[in-house]
Amino acid sequence: MNSKTASIRVKQLTLTAMTAALICVFSPLSIPIGPVPISLATLAVMFAGAFLGPVRGTASAAVYLLLGMAGRPVFAGFRGGIGVIAGPTGGFLIGYLPLAAICGLGMLFAAKKLWIRAVSLTALCIAGTAVLYAIGTAWFCAVTGSTLTAAIAVCVLPFLPGDALKIAACVILTLSLKRRSTYDIF
Fold first, then answer.
1. Distant-in-sequence, close-in-space partners of 97: CB < 8 Å, separation ≥ 6
2. Quick one: the chain helix, strand, coil %, rounded to 5?
3. Cα separation of 40 and 186, whole Å?
4. Domain presence at residue 82
């Protein structure tokens, strides 16, 4: 491995660790509105995927999940441990992996026009959020015995406006940072 390749590898690992840390910082800060709290975790996970791509973005989310499962208080409400994953909101935590991967697919769009990149990244963030909702809601139903209608009322509907804002913020932040990035790692 030559020095340029090693340097790029170090930068990639550093950015992966930094986005995992970002998820760990954003996630515990939450507003308990019911069994599923509002947090900025989804924004951090979407950004990790969109900024780093599907593999490294998903790796960032996986590091976050492993830290939480190991008992570190990085989940919403400063909780940690396997019990949180096994609980009613565990599906949303597991759903961060496909969320990051799907948002990361935006890295594959090398369109020259900014608006095309913005539209494609927005569509991928929406798709990733839909998958997150599906996994989280199904898990919630399985753990709590709720009906699908009741689970959607608790797990999806209250979060739609906030997640729309998070998607917009992710797209703006990601595209802005990509244009200004001096790292040749992408």
1. 58, 61, 62, 65
2. 75, 5, 25
3. 25
4. yes
Cβ burial of 93 (10 Å; 0-12, 13-18, 19+) is: buried
Domain region containing 52: 3-180
Domain assignment present for 131: yes
Please, how many CA atoms are within 13 Å of residue 98, restricted to the half-sphere of its CB? 15
pTM score, two decimals? 0.92
Place of tokens 């992966």: 16
Within a domain: 185? no
Q: What are the average pLDDT values for consecutive 10-residue runs of the chain, which has 186 residues?
A: 81 95 96 92 97 96 98 96 97 98 85 86 97 98 97 97 98 87 50
What's the token pair of residue 68? 């939480």
- List the CATH number of the domain containing 69: 1.10.1760.20
Residue 80 in domain: yes
The tokens for 122 are: 């927005």
Tell me the two tokens of residue 186.
Answer: 């992408």
Joined together, the tokens standing for residue 80 give: 């940690």
Q: With contact defined as beta carbons under 8 Å apart, do 124 and 96 qualify?
A: no
Q: How many domains does the chain have?
A: 1
